[in-house]
Write a structure and sequence with these properties.
- The chain has 445 residues and is α+β, with helices and mostly antiparallel strands.
- The chain has 12 helices and 5 strands.
- A hairpin with a 3-residue loop joins strand 4 (385-391) and strand 5.
- The longest helix has 81 residues, at 163-243.
């Protein structure tokens, strides 16, 4: 089947563009159908005997039809695309429509044209209503359309000043004009709604991509942050032990290998989006890492409260344990780290992580790094909160609270970056020789 080139390309575009093209070209066709209405009136009027007046009439009404086509095109651009309102075109179409009605009525009154051409004034006035509804707000369009309507009625009054005939013409003109204006405006409004729905879908897609990027960055930070810190610590420790000829160096390197393989597995899970954390495994890992760094670790409520937590709550608190222990290793010279679990009377699970040797005494606790910001996002998804406190003497406390009666409420807006650990201090610089000595003392015992 033969089709114009543009129509062939349109068949392979989106549904939105096809609806746009269909609606636009339909309105263009309706505007050009004024020519068919004009031809119908002229055919019913019979042979025109006006000579130059008849020729001028044909040129006048034909020019009006193409002028309405231009007004429809610019009206759609203004209504849908937000282009400036073509005020000159509005003035020209209004004046030309009024002039057409008055000229036809005057020519009939002067016997230059047959009275059978008077319905042309109804046609031009009715087709004027459609583009005007696109170019102006409805109230303004209704007020401006009063001028062509008055001109049309005046044209009939010039020929037959009969109130009954004028009322009959008005009874036909007003409903048809309202129909034309409503058709144009409703069609354009439908296209605008379609554009907004499509824009909302595009925004939803971009937000989904941004959310996935945030999730990936947050999980990657949480996974690699602790593991790389532990790998760095254990490799330095293994190097010191190897220099001293201690057999424990091989054990430390084997542990590094295990952590590296575990990191590979966790990164694959992050990429797939299925990353979950086991709270009991995180507690066991935290104790092992802290004790390897010669930091005394005490667990309170781990055997009574932690096992009873819902899976999502336990996973979120597991991330808190992981990030908190990572920050202890990176940003403090701690000798102790106390991790405690509890249940508040109002139905909240609480986790506190407190350590000494903090280097953020002079820093504001609400200064955040990406780690604490990621924790706040995780807890906010469950309706929980995260707070940090810095006390005199280098004591730092991280507290997480999650409600137990609802696992996934609507997440409140995630606030700005808050917290104090990641951006507050440099990496912990603890002598590795001291750590190696502590391991050797433990081996000798």
């Amino acid at each position: 089947m033969w089709l114009p080139r543009g129509w062939k390309e349109l068949r392979h575009t989106s549904h939105q563009r096809r609806v746009h093209a269909y609606t636009r070209y339909t309105l263009y066709f309706i505007s050009l159908s004024e020519l068919a209405a004009i031809a119908s009136v002229l055919i019913n009027a019979g042979p025109l005997d006006g000579g130059w007046a008849s020729l001028a009439l044909c040129v006048l009404v034909t020019h009006h039809a193409f002028l309405m086509l231009m007004a429809t095109r610019d009206g759609l651009r203004h209504y849908l695309d937000g282009t400036p309102r073509p005020t000159r075109l509005i003035s020209w179409t209004t004046g030309f429509t009024c002039a057409t009605s008055l000229l036809v009525g005057g020519a009939v009154a002067l016997d230059l044209l047959t009275p059978r051409v008077l319905p042309l004034t109804l046609v031009t006035t009715a087709f004027y209503a459609g583009p005007t509804a696109l170019l102006l707000p409805l109230r303004w369009a209704a007020g401006l359309a009063a001028a062509p309507v008055a001109s049309c009625l005046a044209a009939f009054a010039l020929y037959r000043p009969d109130s009954t005939a004028m009322l009959a013409q008005a009874a036909f003109l007003l409903p048809f004009g309202l129909f034309m204006g409503g058709t144009y405006r409703a069609s354009a409004w439908t296209l605008r709604v379609l554009d907004r729905v499509d824009a909302a879908r595009e925004t939803e897609k971009r937000l989904a991509v941004a959310e996935e990027r945030l999730r990936f960055g947050r999980d990657l930070h949480d996974v690699l942050g602790r593991n790389l810190s532990v790998i760095a610590l254990k490799t330095e420790l293994a190097a010191q032990l190897a220099r001293r000829g201690s057999p424990d160096a091989a054990e430390q390197l084997a542990e590094v290998q295990r952590i590296a393989r575990e990191s590979q597995r966790e990164i694959r899970e992050v990429v797939r989006g299925y990353r979950e954390v086991d709270l009991r495994a995180e507690l066991a890992g935290a104790r092992g890492v802290l004790e390897a760094a010669d930091i005394r670790c005490s667990l309170t409520g781990a055997s009574t409260v932690a096992p009873t937590l819902p899976p999502k709550v336990g996973s979120a608190l597991g991330w808190v344990v992981r990030e908190g222990v990572t920050n202890v290793l990176r940003h403090s010279s701690a000798r102790r780290c106390d991790i405690g679990f509890g249940r508040s009377p109002d139905g909240w699970a609480e986790l506190s992580l407190e350590n000494d040797g903090s280097r953020v005494d002079g820093a504001r606790p609400d200064q955040a790094g990406s780690g604490l910001a990621g924790l706040r996002e995780r807890l906010s998804a469950l309706g929980g909160t995260l707070s940090v406190e810095s006390a005199p003497g280098g004591v730092f406390r991280l507290t997480a609270r999650v409600p137990l009666d609802r696992e996934s409420p609507e997440a409140p807006g995630v606030g700005g970056a808050e917290g104090a650990l990641d951006g507050a201090a440099r990496r912990r610089e603890r002598p590795v020789e001291e750590e190696a000595a502590s391991v050797e003392r433990g081996a000798s015992r």
